[in-house]
Amino acid sequence: MDLKNIGSLSFFYPEIVLSVTILLVIVLDLLTRNRRILSLVALIGCVAALIATFDLYSAQPGWMFHRMMVLDNFSLFFKIFALAATILCIWMSLGSNEIKQVHQGEYYTLLLTCTLGMSFMASSSNLLMAYLSLELVSLTSYVLTGFLPHNRRSSEAALKYLIYGGVASGTMIYGMSWIFGMTGSLDYGAIQTSLAQIAVNKTALFMALVFILAGFGYKIVFVPFHMWSPDVYQGAPTPFTAFLSVASNAAGLAILIRFFFPVMSRMVPGGDWTVVSGVEWPQVLLFLSMITMTIGNLCALNQRNLKRMLAYSGIAHAGYMMMGLAVLSNDGLSAILFYIVVYLIMNIGAFLVIGLIANVTGDEDIEDYRGLAWRGAVIPASCLAIFLLSLTGLPPFAGFIGKFFLFAAVLKVGGVFVILALVAVMNSVVSLYYYAKIIKTMFLDMPDPEAKAVTMASNDFTLLIPLTVLTLVFGIYFAPLLKFSQQSLSFFIK
Amino acid sequence: MENVLTYMTFVPLAGAALVLVLPNNAKLIRWVAAAATVPPLYLSIWLFNHFDRTKAGFQFVEKYQWIPTYNISYYMGADGLSISMILLTALLSFLCIFASFGIDKAVKGYFALFLMLDAGMMGVFCALDFFLFFVFWEVMLLPMYFLIGIWGGPRREYAAIKFFLYTLFGSGFMLIAILALYFSSEPHTFDMTVLMAQASKFGTEVLPMWPFKQLGWGFQHAIWMALFIGFAIKIPAFPFHTWLPDAHVEAPTAISVILAGVLLKMGTYGILRINFPMLPVATADLAFWFLGALGAFNIIYGALCAMAQKDLKKLVAYSSVSHMGYVMLGMASMTTQGINGAVLQMFNHGTITGMLFLLVGVVYDRAHHREIEGFGGLAAVMPVYTGITALAFFASMGLPGLSGFISEILVLLGTWQKYPVLTILGASGVILTAGYLLWTIQRVYLGPTNEKYLKIPDINGREIFTLVPLGVIVIIVGIYPAVVLDMLRATLDQINQIVLPHLHS
């Protein structure tokens, strides 16, 4: 299936729904003073787009828009993911005091535009399209990071994010130009064919891949492109941090997997992949993975701000997920897809609790969580504990299953990869220390006598309880999610 | 009875859920929690009666598909080895609920977590699927962390996180080993019975890298060691034992009992259940110079450490290190007496050390300290208490007629046939044990009564109720050990027969 512009539109309706919602929010922002309506419109638009995307799932795969994009289960998986993250983010924004201070019309417009960019990232099959969609996501993220008025930290974070992002995407587009120079094409399919036919300079191709990795790596947040993340996580409004922590990571993974797997490697029978033209990029990812998880975990150990700590833990988790890339197998890829869904649930859950607590205490310092469970907030504290333990990878929570599949994929290959698995396991032990520190502060420490009670309205739990239940359910009965992630692993470009 | 093992595992969990939704009435919660431990106790006695002692294989088997794609199933079953441990778990959980009636801080949380812990422990001893086993193994950590961390002593936070980190460190290695075994089996499976049957497939060719090449270790040895680290931390074997004194001292009495009585057994249970039948070649290679020597070292090291302690509870904790050494030594001997003695020692240590910790708890509740030097002459004011303590101490020492004697003598008899030197070292531990226990009795119970404690009341009815069943078992097993040994024999002979052909000398 190779669709032209008009023909593509009939497979493009989730994005059309999203675009219409964006326009509607802008118009409504001019017409009404009721901020609630804006968020509801944004929420309904996202839900409609999500339903539309599910409707497309397992449709016949093919090219769209003159081979600029592809339609396949893999792209639809990440579109569903981005929309789900957006819905959760909007829901969190509804109850957030931070968001009440900002211009909500712009906030929701930019948020949905960011989501739109992520949908494009997931399905782009042309280097130019990949670059443009990545920039769309980045630009909206810069603005949203600095969205808190009169907040120095927020502005500083936005500026840092912008500078790092600018450098990373500049490097990436430079690498893309090398690829274009070597293969004469920007189209993924054409690049793949020409790499298989002509002999390219291996060093040049390797360098080009490293440059491109810089751009993708800054979205996935792996070392050494991670410097922006702690500041941005700390400075950005909490609902957006939650969104960014999972959605940016996922979109980066989508674009990376699409470029490196069907294009820079070839599938061999039996669910494995092999690199084309002898460039050993998986080894780079192997080392980056080990370094990323180690640095992320070690830096997280001594953080005093919970959001900042979760930023470093996010870096560590990016490292875990990269294990699945380095092994070059379908098992690894489906483990990543599984992990990212689980990561969405537990990480957004953690940020949700942080947002709820910050609504009361106005801060995210770990010190403010002292004796939280004894200050009338047993349920939020228990939920946060569950999310954190799930992030550590302890059964019976979903995070364990996610890590289990990643480890399984790594150990299936064996050989040197056993060392990777060992490093990852030791990292999990290290991560327990700082996650447990939060749990200790909440449960084991007694509150200061003058600390005020933390009370929650019952509607704060509408999202919290389902996320907690999902974390538990996917830890015990994960067969449907496993099936979904395996089904989503079908690329149109083979 | 259908699905008896499932009921035993999940009734406490249901009890935990029930406790969470009950109104905040301490008395009600306590009794509901106690009621939740009765069905497992009843069922374990039922198992004891209906268990076919002539068969070596697994009985009361339940198997359901769980995750077919990865060949993971919900597979439960019990043989002689696990039933002895299930009995111990059910009994100690039941008694410890009563020992916890004094808890008055966040009662609901305490009993809910305690019941979750109970479920996790039962699950570990019943699981026959490696994945399920690992899940239960880890599920125990969380309640334990909170039980030590919230209801423990002054340094509870340190002790709780130390326990948590140590165990997770070990289980990381275990997870890698489990996955490695999974990918080496054909078809890939987590089913323990299949893995045991495929034991010959796990290669022993020397691995071409450091340090395996120098040691002459193959895949099987590497996996053995990875699993062993996971189990050794629980036993706890030197040098992984340092979490134990901290955790025991800080934990509330009932939790110390569970820690010593049940959790430590999981380490040796795991070695017997997994390392021995699944990796027989490596077991045979490592039995003498590693497992046996480590056991003997543990006996002496633990005893010497215990002798140096000033804290009564720490003394009991180190005596556990010493007594678990006998279990390792007995296992390593690969003789019928040795291995039966080892498992009997696991059972006996559970009951005896359970008593010891309960007894320490009794005196701590009254005096609010545990300094050995701070007492003296308690026998005059607490005669009943002192009598029961003497029974427990003598059992721990291995006095003939009490259960500890039977298991220790069996271990030493079994080991003598294979490793006389280790046996001599192990037997010298008996003397050291007698030394520190008698010295403790002298300092705490005999001599002039400390004036501060002239008026403290003797042991009360509830405390006697928790101690008497254990005391009765100690005496019965001491006089007629066949009650337990009959149950173990067939299973352990089978495990032994798998390893023996690979033993060189």
Structure overview:
The complex is a heterodimer of chains A (494) and B (505). Chain A has helices at residues 5-9, 13-31, 35-56, 73-94, 97-100, 104-123, 127-145, 152-183, 188-197, 202-220, 228-235, 238-263, 281-300, 306-326, 330-361, 378-392, 398-413, 417-444, 461-476, 479-487, and strands spanning 62-64, 69-71, 265-268, 272-275. The radius of gyration of chain A is 22 Å and the shape is globular. Chain A is 73% helix and 3% strand. Chain A has 20 helices and four strands. In chain B, 73% of the residues lie in helices and 3% in strands. Chain B has helices spanning 4-21, 26-36, 38-50, 80-99, 107-126, 130-139, 141-151, 156-184, 192-197, 212-215, 219-234, 243-250, 253-278, 280-307, 312-333, 336-367, 378-381, 383-397, 403-416, 420-444, 461-479, 482-499; strands spanning 59-67, 72-78. Chain B has a two-stranded antiparallel ribbon. In chain B, strand 1 (59-67) and strand 2 form a beta hairpin. At the A-B interface, helix 17, helix 18 and helix 20 of A face helix 6, helix 7 and helix 8 of B.
State which percent range the strand residues of chain A make up: under 5%
How many E strands of chain A? 4
- Oligomerization state of this entry? heterodimer
The backbone outline of chain B, from C-alpha atoms, is: globular
Structural class determined from secondary elements of chain A: mainly alpha
Helix content of chain B: over 70%
What fraction, in percent, of the residue positions of chain A are helical? Answer: over 70%
Integer average pLDDT of chain A: 90
Query: What is the distance, rounded to the nearest whole angstrom, between the alpha carbons of the first and last residues of chain A?
Result: 14 Å
Overall mean pLDDT score of chain B? 89
Which stretches of chain B are poorly predicted, pLDDT < 50 over at least 5 residues? none
Q: Could you describe the largest sheet of chain A, including whether it forms a barrel?
A: 2 strands, antiparallel
**Count of DSSP-assigned helices of chain B:** 22
Strand content of chain B: under 5%
The rough form of chain A would be described as globular
The biggest sheet of chain B, with number of strands, parallel, antiparallel or mixed sense and barrel status, is:
2 strands, antiparallel
Strand order of the largest sheet of chain A: 1-2
Please trace the helix and strand order of chain A, writing H or E for each element.
HHHEEHHHHHHHHHEEHHHHHHHH
Q: What is the rounded Rg of chain B?
A: 22 Å
Unreliable parts of chain A? none
The beta-strand count of chain B equals 2
